[in-house]
Amino acid sequence: MAPEQDPIVTFGQWLQEATASEPNDPNAMTLATSNASGFPSARMVLLKGHDEQGFVFYTNLGSRKATDLLAQPRCALLFHWKTKRRQVRVEGEAHQVGDDEADAYFATRARVSQLGAWASKQSQPLRGRFELEARIADVTLRHPLTVPRPPFWSGFRVVPRAIELWEDRPFRLHMRYRFERDVSAAGVGSWRHTELYP
Predict the structure, then answer these.
(1) What is the pTM of this model?
(2) Distance from chain centroid for Cα 177
(3) For a surface tag, which of 40, 64, 139, 159 has the fewest beta carbons within 10 Å of its beta carbon?
């Protein structure tokens, strides 16, 4: 780990290395949110893009994660790569991506996933599997060729204010660096880093 390096660059290197070693979903991350009343909730989602501007994932806008973020955009992410003995923590604010960006990503999804996005009332009560299968059949008939992005399905970009890089070391004397930066309407500032006790 090079603490003087941009943490986004280090993250990209670690993700690439994890992709070669993790048995499943190296892009899986825990997303922690809180609702308007302050009650927390966490779940696993898949990272679909990252750069200096943030970390992007997609979801149904009626899901609990989306309604939480629309009410309270502050959130946290956690990546844990067991095979590499590394983790990355991210704290920031989530902002909905633009329609063009959401459309472009939706077009890359497998057709069955596109149809599933239309059929699922994510996080809502389901009366039985047959109800879901009937909705899949219905949207399949309605979209025999291309499947447009549903208006209730989009993405969020988590703009990081803090990133913490953790790497295992013998005798629990782990390497741990915290990076922080100022984020304003004018853009993002440079990263400041501090080494932390493990």
Answers:
(1) 0.93
(2) 21
(3) 40
